[in-house]
Design a protein that fits this description.
This protein is α+β, with helices and mostly antiparallel strands and 191 residues long. The protein folds into two domains: 88 residues; 87 residues, de novo design (two linked rop proteins). It is 38% helix and 28% strand. It is built from four helices and eight strands, in the order E-E-E-E-E-E-E-E-H-H-H-H. A four-stranded antiparallel beta sheet has the order 3-6-7-8. Strands 1-2 form a two-stranded antiparallel sheet. Strands 4-5 form a two-stranded antiparallel sheet. Helix 1 runs antiparallel to helix 2 and helix 1 packs antiparallel against helix 4. The longest helix is centred in the last third of the chain and has 23 residues. The chain is globular and about 50 Å long. It starts with 9 loop residues before the first strand and ends with a helix. The mean pLDDT is 88. Keywords: Coiled coil.
């Protein structure tokens, strides 16, 4: 079902793609549901004088008939859009997808924001933030050799293990643990 409830918007679709054209001001909320198996690519572009200018691309998102995704595009900073993927349609976010252009510092910022938004005890929150800050310092060191990469990956694994442990004790919600792990794995992949 396609609904077009935004004044000034246009929705076009063909057999292999869909396009939504929106007014330049506002925050727009999207939901997509998988109808088959295969990759999905989401592109956010700006049009100036009939020329498309790419702002953010989210390539090859794994999609199945049970996949649903939600995201909000803010016209002030559309490139910071994060797509929340629910792979099994249980209402829980299983994966966060950031744009292909997102770098490690953006991912670290997203991770800090995620931890700051958690409804957890201040001591645990501050401890996690301190671990993220230490990870950031290790990543920012200019020398890149096998030893430093192993040290960074060990730090990432330590933070993952801490989040999982606190999740098992009920101190962090399971969905929040999954989002933290997903961001840390994306940071590790970007190294």
């Amino acid at each position: 079902m396609i609904t077009e409830d935004i004044p000034g918007s246009t929705f076009l679709y063909s057999s292999d793609s869909q396009h939504i054209f929106l007014p330049k001001d506002g925050t727009y909320h999207f939901v997509y549901k998988g109808i088959g198996d295969g990759p999905t690519t989401v592109e956010i572009q700006d049009f100036i004088a009939d020329v498309a200018i790419p702002l953010a691309t989210y390539s090859d998102i794994p999609t199945t008939p049970s996949t649903s995704a939600t995201f909000a595009v803010n016209s002030q900073n559309p490139e910071k859009t994060i797509i929340k993927i629910d792979t099994n349609n249980d209402g829980e976010t299983d994966e966060l997808v950031v744009s292909d252009e997102t770098d490690i510092s953006d991912l670290l910022t997203l991770l800090k924001e995620k931890i700051q938004s958690l409804d957890i005890k201040d001591k645990l929150k501050n401890n996690l933030l301190k671990n993220i800050e230490n990870l950031k310092k290790k990543i920012e060191k200019k020398k890149r050799n096998d030893k430093s990469l192993i040290s960074i990956k060990n730090k990432i694994n330590n933070i993952i293990n801490k989040a999982v442990k606190k999740g098992k004790k009920g101190k962090i919600a399971d969905s929040d643990v999954r989002e933290i792990i997903n961001l840390l794995e994306q940071i590790e992949s970007a190294l």
